[in-house]
Amino acid sequence: MSTFTVSNLSVGRGGKQVIDDLSFTLQSGRITALLGPNGAGKSSLVLAIAGVLPVASGRVEIDGQVVSGQSPEIVRAAGIAAVPEGHRVLSGLSVEDNLQAAGFQQSAADAAKAVDEAYAIFPELAERKKQRAGSMSGGQQQMLALGQGLVARPKFILADEMSLGLAPLIVKRLMAVLSRLAAQGTGILLIEQFTALALKEAHDAHVLSRGRFSFSGSPEILRQNPDILHKAYLA
Fold first, then answer.
1. How many whole angstroms separate alpha carbon 215 and alpha carbon 208?
2. Cβ neighbour number for residue 98 with a 10 Å cutoff
3. Of 119, 131, 184, 222, whose CB has the highest number of CB atoms within 10 Å?
4. pLDDT averaged over the chain?
5. Where exactly does CATH 3.40.50.300 map onto the chain?
6. Averaged pLDDT for residues 127-135
7. What confidence score (pLDDT) does residue 87 get?
8. CATH architecture of 3-79+155-234
9. Is the backbone of residue 12 left (phi > 0), alpha (psi -120 to 50) or beta?
10. Residue 180, burial from CB neighbour count under 10 angstroms (0-12, 13-18, 19+)
11. What percentage of residues in the chain have a pLDDT greater than 70?
12. SS (H, E, C) the chain
């Protein structure tokens, strides 16, 4: 069992503090939904954890190893895979090259095995190995973005707005993959605009508003009390 801990984390962006003294824990095999309005700081939190944005104060640990303030490569090697919003892929490279690039920290044999596993999960990608990633549909690019995360064999996945702009059928497919990964022991932080979908899949939930949690607890409480979410979106 792995543990991922964020302690008293504060993050600034564009001259403003966007994450304010935030603390929470993720656990292996559990999906934690992170909900909140646009501008609440959700994506900034993911980027800071991933080593893309600097941390003003506080710390991020995975199994006791402090990764806050480290490079994205070190964070990834520690077992944290961020899947940013907007299905970001290396658009000029082929599907295969995108997946192989994600396994650069592994041995050639392990990386090849991980790529094959990604193809098994997303057969659509296997059919397009040589296709330029940027020429695929948004849904296929999002599959590739998640596939890149899987190739790194992470202990934890930070999935930021995977459903953005995608057809419901694709969203359902991606959510099923995350649920299966959690059942196999991966910890998931799920940032999702479709709150009902996120709460259905999650074991734990946080509502972020203006850089702080306005709620932390059971998803069932949010399902039964929609006013809690409503107030956060109006804050």
1. 7
2. 24
3. 222
4. 91
5. 3-79+155-234
6. 94
7. 67
8. 3-Layer(aba) Sandwich (3.40)
9. beta
10. exposed
11. 98
12. CCEEEEEEEEEEECCEEEEEEEEEEEECCCEEEEECCCCCCHHHHHHHHCCCCCCCEEEEEECCEECCCCCHHHHHHHCEEEECCCCCCCCCCEHHHHHHHHCCCCCHHHHHHHHHHHHHHCHHHHCCCCCEHHHCCHHHHHHHHHHHHHHCCCCEEEEECCCCCCCHHHHHHHHHHHHHHHHCCCEEEEECCCHHHHHHHCCEEEEEECCEEEEEECHHHHHHCHHHHHHHHHC
Asked if residue 2 lies in contact with residue 30, where contact means CB atoms within 8 angstroms, the answer is no
The residue assigned the tokens 């059942």 is 183
- CA distance readout (Å), 192 to 20, 47, 171: 21, 16, 10
pLDDT of residue 235 exceeding 70: no
One-letter amino acid for residue 85 of the chain: E
Report pLDDT digits (tens) over 194-218: 888 899 999 999 999 999 999 999 9
Contact of 22 with 42, CB cutoff 8 Å: no
What does the angle CA 179 – CA 185 – CA 191 come to, to the nearest 5 degrees?
A: 45
Place of tokens 């990964």: 181
Q: Is the Cα dihedral 143, 145, 148, 153 positive or negative?
A: negative
